[in-house]
Design a protein that fits this description.
The structure is a homodimer. By secondary structure, chain A is mostly helical. The first copy, chain A, has helices at 4-18, 29-36, 40-52, 71-95, 98-117, 121-143, 146-149, 158-167, 170-188, 192-213; strands spanning 26-27, 56-59, 63-66. In chain A, a hairpin with a 3-residue loop joins strand 2 and strand 3. In chain A, helix 5 packs antiparallel against helix 6 and helix 9 (170-188) packs antiparallel against helix 10 (192-213). The longest helix of chain A is centred in the middle third of the chain and has 25 residues, at 71-95. At the A-B interface, helix 3 and helix 4 of A face helix 3, helix 4 and helix 7 of B. The structure holds a DNA duplex.
DNA sequence: TGACTTAAGTCTGGATGCAAAATATGGCCG
DNA sequence: CGGCCATATTTTGCATCCAGACTTAAGTCA
């Protein structure tokens, strides 16, 4: 995991998330070579990966730009994510084992403990994001369809990942964990409809939380598409 | 359109779809260099792209293999496709213009003419696939969310593309075009629910047609689970 | 005989040089 | 003075070379 492509990927990705590379800005391969201290080959690999994940827009013979997300795009991708997660949890509801149920339940208990005892808001957000990711990754694993779960990173609007880290407060985290617990109950009853409804609410709530927490930003002019 | 990366991408993709590269087989970069008559750099680009789209599996320092599909995976990916196409046409129903409507209608008329006059079954299949792709590409364009439409290739099970090319007969093509016409009517009424229902039936029918390896005259099929 | 070690061979990941396309610059003509 | 065309520079795309990792196979020892 310490090879050049991953290094370039992580550095460029972090630069975008942190805002060092602003939306709409041209990304020069040569500049990334200097920034990451690797050659152009892994830089190009990283840009391709970031393009797949929606961080970057690439055009043939022209290069790459930091992708701008319109409000409409973010909303639509959230809707797509809700549908795909809905399918995932349907599969989970039919495939989950007792061991899987126990693991998910443990995750929600851990989360509850963190919510109850972690005082620092930043640390709370950090730990929430970690446990939250773990929970959803376990869902993908149980759904047991790599083709679908590999698609999910492409349905996580990049600006969201950034924003949520700062905007999650205790109530929001609490509600999220309640959703997870409802999911576990639905799984324990093998109730796919219930599970799907819960996870869709879960995603829609995340969208609203994102949207309302968004400052009205002035975006750089995106390249013509 | 005629650059080395695309050439390699298309040739390798076609080899997988046509079965020249069988599921589970190791893909040697050097072999692809000889097959595509380009250097290793564009071959590597192509393999990475195909990895995004689920055609090949890549492992660090080990190379690439043709990814195999289980029956379960195919079924689940069809379900995912139905959901995503359902969202796409909802967006179309709210965004389409009169010009867009006319273009789609023209496509269905062309298709009807082909069905009526093309005698050779192979030519019929060819022309159907071309017009069908055109129709769906127009939907993606009208939906106007590149982020979502770029993901659709990853939801096209490779073995299916192959099978349908040989299995589409006149009835199946006819039914498909009726679905398209129903879609256009739904769009003209800006009826997103109608459009979504139609396209889901459309995809489910395609799945059943694939699964049974024979045409189906039934339009409404039960949910996949 | 079988399993482990080790060394040779093969293949992928990364770096660099070169060619072509796109962009930027400057001069010319209207 | 402004728009257009030609040229120069920059940047991307492609090919090739080198190094490191993995695979394979032979050989040795238990």
């Amino acid at each position: 995991m310490t090879n050049a492509s991953d290094i370039a990927y992580r550095i460029i990705r972090k630069s975008i998330i942190d805002g060092d590379l602003v939306q709409g800005e041209k990304i020069s391969e040569e500049a990334m070579v200097r920034l990451c201290d690797v050659s152009r080959t892994p830089v190009r690999d990283a840009l391709r990966q970031l393009s797949f994940e929606g961080y970057v827009l690439q055009r043939k013979n022209q290069g790459a730009w930091v992708k701008s997300w319109s409000d409409e795009e973010v909303k639509e991708v959230y809707e797509a994510r809700a549908r795909m997660e809905g399918l995932i949890v349907r599969l989970v509801a039919t495939k989950i084992s007792d061991a899987g149920l126990a693991k998910l339940a443990t995750n929600t208990d851990d989360m509850a403990r963190v919510i109850a005892h972690e005082q620092d808001p930043l640390a709370l957000a950090e730990r929430f994001l970690g446990l939250n990711r773990e929970f959803h990754d376990q869902l993908y694993e149980i759904a047991n369809n790599p083709r679908l779960s590999d698609l999910m990173p492409a349905l996580s609007p990049p600006p969201v990942v950034h924003k949520t880290a700062k905007n999650f407060n205790r109530d929001r985290v609490q509600q999220s964990n309640e959703d997870h617990r409802a999911l576990v109950r639905a799984f324990s009853k093998s109730d796919a409809n219930w599970a799907e409804s819960v996870v869709k609410s879960h995603i829609y709530a995340a969208y609203v939380s994102y949207r309302d927490g968004m400052p009205t930003t002035v975006m750089a002019t995106p390249p013509l598409e």
